[in-house]
Write a structure and sequence with these properties.
Radius of gyration: 32 Å
Helix content: 25-40%
Shape: elongated
Largest sheet: 8 strands, mixed
Strand order of the largest sheet: 5-4-6-7-8-11-12-13
Number of strands: 18
Number of helices: 15
Length: 503
């Protein structure tokens, strides 16, 4: 048989056209080195005509649908496995609160569904979830609004699930928010680690990795345990005149996909089976199918061969067995991701080397803020003597710190010196003190500013009550102002005998 290669973009019409071209060539199978979104469409079209599809990198758990895609074989583990690995990483470092940012596609959204389920069962808190659409020209991707929401959520642990090229843009922009500084941790998925060369800066003379990548922690399909690993790396690097470390994991999985196909085909013919080529014309013969495809697919599932990545074998659903992920860490001194441990369903996460986090720190970041040092806080205030006093009427239209005095102002000044933060005051955006509207849902005034995250803290004399506590958090009270009722006590009346005794 001949090999036919088609490159596709993620436009549905282009994908369909390329699949139809391959079917008309009479292919016996299609090896799809494509994201999950494209693989889904390829498999839907090809499987309907009885042509098996071997997916190299498609990991969307929803692809496992025997009714729609009965002849799909996957070389990479499902994202259900990856979600389990990511959840174990969160457990290992005791990160109970985190945020998630993903591409707005099947890989990005479905790929982290397992983490959301784990968070629900383990009572973890997902501070914020953001999605972004990836444009055709990834260099124009702008995620400023999404990152601003992550920043405002005060998250220190961030999970990023998207392709490597998009991840490079996200992390570069995250740097401007300080989200890649020490004290943060970014966890990335195999869409990033498996295509790490796409993270390189492309608009400079020499391709380099940006400093914002320092400390990335991620999962990468284990691709170094196979018998053919060393041979493949030597031969491939020599043939393409590249360094071994520049060979991406998904390249090795692509080789394994071809190896599985070749092994299955060899076994198929060894059993004296034949293949009747079918040049399937979708338009002229809509009912035409590749009759030998289902039988050939059964041979795909029976393959057990030692490839470059590991011992390759499959279950009855066409899913790869023996799922394993390397836990990898990007360190600028190494220039690439380095292995720091591994994960399997049986062992869980095993960290075997030191881990560097964002900003080059080796200190495990806390999942929530544990210091205000060098933070700049926006403090909401409203005039309420003696707690907050406006110095003179000329300050009515300004928010200068010098315009205000009083007990709350003095308290902020003292805390600022003690804890090392800077601050600025703002008045309620709607000009009123505010409260809960009669509808029982809408807040106004300084309360609304808190809930909308326009301010970090309301620095005011505010009573604590059960209604407010349902929506906002309070500090330890600095003053007790409970009501006290004073009444005249009863006069004690003495009997005649007691009066005589006292006299």
């Amino acid at each position: 048989k001949q090999w036919y290669q088609r490159r596709v973009r993620d436009r549905p019409l282009v994908i369909s056209k390329r699949v139809f071209e391959l079917l008309q060539q009479g292919v016996s199978a299609i090896i799809c080195h494509c994201p999950s979104t494209i693989t889904e469409q390829v498999a839907n079209l090809a499987n309907e005509k009885g042509v098996p599809v071997i997916a190299v990198t498609a990991t969307d758990p929803l692809l496992q649908n025997r009714e729609r895609r009965p002849y799909l074989l996957r070389i990479s583990p499902s994202d259900q496995q990856q979600s389990a690995a990511l959840s174990d990483i969160l457990d290992h470092f005791n990160w109970l609160h985190f945020s998630i940012i993903t591409s707005y596609d099947s890989y990005g959204i479905h790929g982290i569904s397992g983490i959301q389920k784990a968070a629900s069962s383990k009572r973890w808190k997902i501070n914020n979830i953001q999605h972004f659409a990836v444009p055709e020209d990834v260099a124009t991707l702008n995620v400023t609004k999404e990152l601003e929401m992550i920043y405002k959520s005060e998250s220190r642990i961030i999970i990023l699930n998207c392709g490597a090229a998009a991840a490079g843009q996200v992390l570069r922009q995250a740097e401007t928010f300080g989200l890649t500084d020490a004290g943060y941790a970014w966890i990335v998925t195999d869409g990033v680690t498996g295509n790490f060369n796409d993270l390189m800066l492309q608009n400079i003379r020499h391709k380099l990795f940006g400093a914002y990548l320092e400390g990335l922690l991620g999962t990468m399909p284990a691709t170094k345990d196979g018998l053919l690993y060393s041979w493949f790396m030597d031969d491939f690097s020599t043939h393409l005149e590249i360094k071994r470390r520049e060979i991406e994991p998904f390249t090795r999985l692509a080789f394994d996909a071809v190896y599985v196909f070749a092994t299955a085909l060899h076994n198929y013919f060894s059993d004296e089976n034949t293949i009747t080529e079918r040049n399937i014309n979708i338009w002229d013969y809509p009912g035409q199918t590749f009759e030998d495809g289902p039988r050939l697919y059964e041979y795909f599932k029976r393959v057990k061969v030692n490839g470059t990545s590991k011992m390759l074998s499959f279950d009855d659903q066409g899913e790869i067995k023996n799922a394993k992920y390397d836990i990898v860490n990007f360190v600028s001194g190494d220039g690439y991701f380095r292995e720091v441990g591994y994960w399997t369903p049986e062992s869980g996460v095993q960290i075997e080397d030191y881990v560097v986090f964002s900003g080059g720190s080796r200190t495990v970041p806390a999942y929530q803020i544990d210091t205000l040092e060098r933070r700049h806080l926006i403090l909401g205030i409203d005039v309420d003597p003696p707690f907050i006093i406006m110095e003179d009427s000329t300050c009515d239209d300004t928010v200068s710190n010098a315009c205000y005095s009083g007990y709350c102002i003095s308290l902020v000044e003292e805390l600022s010196h003690m804890l090392g933060f800077t601050y600025e005051f703002v008045r309620p955006s709607d000009g009123i003190w505010g409260g809960l509207d009669p509808d029982g849902v809408t807040w106004t005034g300084i309360f609304k500013d808190l809930l909308d995250r326009r301010i970090d803290i309301a620095t005011v004399h505010m009573s604590i009550n059960s209604i407010r506590e349902k929506s906002i958090d309070f500090s330890v009270p600095f003053m007790q102002a409970g009501l006290t009722v004073v009444v005249k006590g009863e006069e004690e009346t003495l009997s005649a005998e007691e009066e005589e005794t006292q006299s």
